[in-house]
Amino acid sequence: MQELTDKFGRKISYLRLAITDRCNFRCEYCMPAKGIAIVDRKDLLSF
Length: 47
Fold this sequence. Notes:
The N and C termini lie far apart (35 Å). This protein is 0% helix and 0% strand. The protein has no helix or strand. The protein is low in regular secondary structure.
């Protein structure tokens, strides 16, 4: 398997995933301008 590196040549040895119910972006795929209400931060799931 080929080693994974970033654009600075640093070896990537782990992957961290964050699962949330809020997207950071407002693209047409998951957050179109109409039809999706933005949830207040206090109502988001947290651990």
